[in-house]
Each structure stands twice: as structure tokens, then as C-alpha cells.
TrEMBL record:
It comes from the Eukaryota. The keyword Signal does not apply. It is found in: Apical cell membrane; Myelin membrane. One of its GO terms (cellular component) is myelin sheath. The chain crosses the membrane at residues 20-44, 56-81, 96-116. PANTHER family: MARVEL-CONTAINING POTENTIAL LIPID RAFT-ASSOCIATED PROTEIN (PTHR22776), PLASMOLIPIN (PTHR22776:SF9). It is a multi-pass membrane protein. Residues 1-120 form the MARVEL domain. It comes from Buceros rhinoceros silvestris. The keyword Coiled coil does not apply. This is Plasmolipin. One of its GO terms (biological process) is myelination.
Length: 135
């Protein structure tokens, strides 16, 4: 939802006049689509059909790459906001897009942390642990 807000807010401005927002649009739309695809994969449990793919590692790499690219998109978006813009609604939308880009960046960073823990096996819980009886 946050990624959708980023590209919807940027798309609702005259972003084509500023080259920096092209990068922000690419990153936000690309990772929004990939995130929806991963979500649908896990929702439909399609990952269980592909045993060869190391899903925890794939998710960790995906989240790490998304974090790094969202850092660049956030910095680009925030640096391109001009408070002296003659179109006040563009300024407000671009500033809001910068804020939400920061939230998406933080969200992907937290997801990277939890994906790393799942990959290393540090985040076991009652649903994933297996109890063995050593009698």
C-alpha cells in the first residue's frame, strides 16, 4: 500500500518535467509489482511447488535490493522537492511521496532483517519448529 502511494502521488504531478522523478517512478512501480507477485506467490502457496528455489534467501535478496534502491529513490525524491514551486499541489504531493518513500524504505529494511533471520533459521516459532522426543 505504501509503495502504491508513492507512485500514485508522483504520477499525479507533472513529474515528466523533472528527470529525477522518472527514477522514483521506476523504483516504486517495479518493486510494487514484484512485491504483489511475491505476495500472491505466498498467498496461493506456490512456493511449496518449487522446492529447488531457496525462498528465504530469495526474499532476503529481494528485500535488500529493494531497500538499497528505495534509499536512492527517497533521496532523489526528497532532493527534487522544491518548496518554491508555483504549483502548490505538486509540492504537497511530491513532499508526501518523499515521506511515503521513506516509510517504504524503512519497511523494506525491516523486512530484510526478518528475512535474514528466517534465512539463518533464527526466527523459529511454534508454527515452524519441530519438537523431537529424545526418550
Amino acid at each position: 500500500v505504501l509503495g502504491l502511494l508513492v507512485w500514485a502521488l508522483i504520477a499525479n504531478t507533472t513529474y515528466h518535467l523533472h528527470a529525477a522523478y522518472g527514477w522514483v517512478m521506476f523504483v516504486s512501480i517495479f518493486f510494487w509489482i514484484l512485491t504483489v507477485l511475491f505476495f500472491m506467490t505466498y498467498l496461493l502457496q506456490l512456493q511449496l511447488r518449487f522446492h529447488v528455489v531457496p525462498w528465504p534467501l530469495v526474499l532476503m535478496i529481494f528485500n535488500a535490493v529493494a531497500t538499497v534502491l528505495y534509499v536512492t529513490a527517497f533521496v532523489t525524491c526528497a532532493a527534487a522537492v522544491q518548496p518554491t514551486s508555483w504549483r502548490q499541489w505538486d509540492y504537497n504531493r511530491r513532499a508526501a511521496a518523499s515521506f511515503f518513500a521513506c516509510l517504504v524504505m524503512i519497511t523494506y529494511a525491516v523486512s530484510t532483517f526478518f528475512s535474514f533471520r528466517a534465512w539463518k533459521g533464527l526466527g523459529s516459532n511454534a508454527a515452524t519448529s519441530q519438537v523431537t522426543d529424545h526418550a
